[in-house]
Backbone:
């Protein structure tokens, strides 16, 4: 019985981690890291997860407006850990409504309308192997507000 419970527990953790690693938050923040000039200077080209099966630490709770994740990354020059923190300041946090056919991060479809949910990035850092912490936030551009709709 203890072995069965251990297998079920480990399987549940693996499933929840897979769900996090394939979420739009993780894929978008990893893409933003790949195109960030500071990160490219430190990590080099081909930035991706540090391990074949990545472990995503933290929470992704879009329903309650809290995102605080961190995971290992690597490039051709080095390795590090990326941390991304974002929150929704207002209860509903809707930015706008528009008619469009594409898919946008932090959005959901309500009939033909897409409702954009406003999150504010409060922390986005890259910690290198030697302990150097690099702030990746650009004052002018929130890394996750870029989309095909000009947000």
Residues:
């Amino acid at each position: 019985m203890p072995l069965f419970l251990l297998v079920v527990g480990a399987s549940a953790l693996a499933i929840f981690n897979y769900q996090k690693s394939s979420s739009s938050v993780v894929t978008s923040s990893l893409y933003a890291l790949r195109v960030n000039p500071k990160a490219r200077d430190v990590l080099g080209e081909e930035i991706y997860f540090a391990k074949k099966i990545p472990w995503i630490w933290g929470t992704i709770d879009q329903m309650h407006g809290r995102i605080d994740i961190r995971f290992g990354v690597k490039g051709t020059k080095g390795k590090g850990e990326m941390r991304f923190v974002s929150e929704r300041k207002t209860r509903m946090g809707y930015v706008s409504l528009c008619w469009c056919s594409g898919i946008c991060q932090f959005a959901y479809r309500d009939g033909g309308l897409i409702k954009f949910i406003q999150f504010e990035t409060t922390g986005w850092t890259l910690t290198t192997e030697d302990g150097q912490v690099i702030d990746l936030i650009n004052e002018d551009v929130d890394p996750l507000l870029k989309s095909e709709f000009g947000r």
Notes: Residues 93-106, 146-151 have pLDDT under 50 and may be disordered.
